[in-house]
Design a protein that fits this description.
Layout lengths: L11 E6 L4 E9 L5 E10 L7 E10 L4 E6 L2 H6 L16
Antiparallel strand pairs: 1-2, 1-5, 2-3, 3-4
């Protein structure tokens, strides 16, 4: 998987971890174990009763063995979404 991440370097990406966290940030780098370095990152926390809460993380390292899914985000579309009106159940923790 790590070799396919080359095109994502410098791009805004979304990472879903095995414990159900959703982290968005600019992919700065990675290694062959898929450890990720994100800059300007934030965790997006979903709720059924409230909108999406964004928690700033800044520079963030994600261990490769916790990555479930990674994908590029369309910056234009992400910029116009009203996250305060998006309500959804949190992603289930796959470890539980």
């Amino acid at each position: 998987m790590a070799s396919s991440l080359v095109s994502y370097v410098g791009q805004l990406v979304e990472v879903v971890t095995w414990d159900g966290r959703l982290i968005v940030g600019n992919l700065k780098g990675f290694d062959q174990q898929t450890n990720l370095i994100l800059t300007n990152s934030e965790e997006r926390v979903f709720s059924i009763t409230a909108g999406v809460e964004k928690q700033p993380l800044g520079l963030y390292v994600i261990r490769g063995d916790t990555v479930a899914v990674i994908g590029e985000i369309d910056k234009d579309l992400d910029g116009v979404l009203d996250f305060s009106s998006i309500k959804a159940a949190p992603v289930k923790n796959l470890y539980a």
